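Thread: Newbie trying to understand structure tokens

Hi all, I'm a second-year student working on a class project, and my supervisor (Dr. K.) asked me to get a predicted structure for one chain before our next meeting. I've only ever worked with sequences, so writing a 3D structure as a token string is new to me. If someone could post the tokens and maybe explain what I'm looking at, I'd be very grateful. Here's the chain:
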Amino acid sequence: MNKYYISTRDANIKINAKQAIIKGFSDDKGLFVLPHLSENKVDLPTLIKKDYQGMAAEVLRILLPDFSNEEIDQCLHNAYDHSFSDDRITPIKDVDNFHVLELFHGPTSAFKDVGLQLLPELMRTALTPEQRVMILAATSGDTGTAALAGFKDTDQMGISVFFPDGGVSPIQKQQMLTTKGANTNVAAIDGNFDDAQTNVKQIFNDADLKAKLGSNISLSSANSINIGRLIPQIVYYFNAYKQLVANQQVELGQPVSFTVPTGNFGDVLAGYYAKMLGLPVEKLVVACNSNKVLADFFENGVYDRNRPFFKTVAPSMDIQISSNFERLLFYKSGEDSSAIKALMDQLETSGKYQVSPELLASIQADFECGYSDDAQIEASIKEVFERDHYLMDPHTASGYSVMRAAQAKHPETPMVLLSTASPYKFVDAVADAVMGHHEANAIDTTKALFDFTRVAVPENLAKVWSLPEDQAPVIEPDQMAEFVYERSMEVFKNHD
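---
Reply by user tm_fold:
Sure, no problem. This is what the structure looks like when written as tokens:
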């Protein structure tokens, strides 16, 4: 088994898993990947007899070969034993003729909790006593909230989160501003998510900033560009399959399909990793919103971010540079890092690239893609609630009509729709869909939505409005590096 991670853009860069997690992002701007991953299959019949932590341990032992069994078990215990409201961590619910995988039972009610409860534990285990790390996260809402919750008051680490001003939901913003850890920092930027993400990547390669921080303070990422954030998400695909087999809804070995709302492509890429590890997946159906760069790519093989940016009712998917797509291109290109570097250089200089017909066909063999505009999203929320009394958030709903199109083509294959967040994280859009209006503020809308639907409000969201909040400064994207430096000095002075 290969034990070293390489960069998607340079196969000569080789580091172990602990180093990859601490760095988060390669110095050549590539992403860390484990070569020849499909050579390492799980024992599926044995795996699905285990509980969630047991399944996670088996997956992590393959993908994090330099972590000891004891380290993995302790990380999983700390991450999952007490922080999720459902013992299954990611439970399956049956709705009409499909299944919903609910990923929002963690401490911030979004799927990012699955990765961001575990990543701090993995990183803490990988650090040497003298090392200090400032975690950086660009967020369109849920990543920042979950990362702040995961890294709050963690020794040897600080975290700085950047979100687009006006580009997150009121509850997401309130969650970020009320985290209040001694090591947590939040700033709004005058721009969109792609501006935040682009500048975070640039900060990782800012030689002047690294020199100012010194040799003991490094920078790392909480976004899914960090392989330690992505790996935990693989597990819930196996957990979904386990539950379907246990419920006698699929036979062991029978293929299933997954519809995945995505922006940065990490959530659905985790499903492809699961397939490479031996999960019987027929299709991974990618769902976009009106920022449909990926949907267009699947039509013509051209990735082109030179287009209008839309603020939608599904803001966590308002992304035009899907960073994790680079990892898929790496595997589908036959692990040709030089070809990936050429494509990414084109994207950086011209804003677009085109893949070969053969590479596009290889991707289409495993993936399908579609999109839903705001009107379709709201119509889907209304339809599913009125027919099945199941309440979806806008991101989950972006996948609904895309899923239905895929089911029409493959009616014999069981379908799982990934539900990425509680509907109460996006109460205005959900209330507009099912009630026809929302109230003047999120507190009143939450109460009205509960009264109308009788769908329970997660405890963490019910109490967030009563917590004391800090204020987030609004800065320009080019001020982010200085913000990181100043906050690093404050955090690690206090810690040391």
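A couple of things are worth pointing out once you decode it. The radius of gyration is 21 Å. Residues 127 and 172 are 30 Å apart (CA to CA). Feel free to ask follow-ups in this thread.
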